[in-house]
Amino acid sequence: MKNAVIYIHGKNGSADEAHYYKKFFNDDYEVVGFDYKSELPWDVREEFQKYIDDMILKYNEIILIGTSVGAYFALLSLAGKTIKKALFISPVVDMEKLITDMMERSNITEDELKSKKELDTEFGETLSWEYLLYARNHPIEWNIPTHILYGEKDNLTAKETLYDFAERTGAILSVMKNGEHWFHTNEQMRVLDNWIRDSICR
């Protein structure tokens, strides 16, 4: 049986992004993108768990690569599964804090969100009371060996939040000075490439 590398894209991403990561693995690994359809966390858990259970039956070992909210969905859904390691790029590790931070930026109170159920923000995100409650009632519990790449200037997750998560879960954290949430410049991609090569070997 071959091994599998499963790539989990972020918001507005695509499973086709998995092709980028093929160059890091030898022929013993099949790199596949998970083309998930769910957007709400209570649907995500069911879809992700079914998918990974099927993949565990097909492959000898599994490595995850996840970005941003895709990493959050993996953290929410796949703890305890038979996964060798996870490599997370700019992961959202505390969805409750992310939502409450966006509420604060938009001057939205919890009472307002609870009353309206959903509210649009000036920066294009729709905030949901149901989503906030779900995130609050389902904190991340993670026990899979994990490497994290984080940009120092990530605008979604504060450094303190990431450091706390890494300490609590034993994740190995790498921080790029002046890096952003979205790794895309030549320098950022060079750092990402080197980080992946190093993380695969550790």
Structure explained in plain terms:
The chain has 202 residues and is of the alpha/beta class. It folds into 2 domains: 3-94 and 142-201, Alpha/Beta hydrolase fold, catalytic domain (Rossmann fold), CATH 3.40.50; 96-139, no CATH class. It is 41% helix and 19% strand. It has helices spanning 41-58, 68-77, 95-105, 110-116, 129-137, 159-169, 186-201; strands at 3-8, 29-33, 62-67, 85-89, 118-120, 126-128, 146-151, 172-176. The strands form 2 sheets. A 6-stranded parallel sheet has the order 2-1-3-4-7-8, sandwiched between helices. Strands 5-6 form a two-stranded antiparallel sheet. Strand 3 (62-67), helix 2 and strand 4 form a beta-alpha-beta unit. Helix 1 (41-58) crosses helix 2 and helix 3 packs antiparallel against helix 5 (129-137). The radius of gyration is 17 Å and the shape is globular. The model has no long low-confidence stretch (mean pLDDT 96).
Brief account:
The protein is α/β, with parallel strands linked by helices. The protein has 7 helices and 8 strands; from the N terminus they run E-E-H-E-H-E-H-H-E-E-H-E-H-E-H. Helix content is 41%, strand content 19%.
Provide tags for this entry.
202 residues; two-stranded antiparallel sheet; alpha/beta; six-stranded parallel β-sheet; Rossmann fold
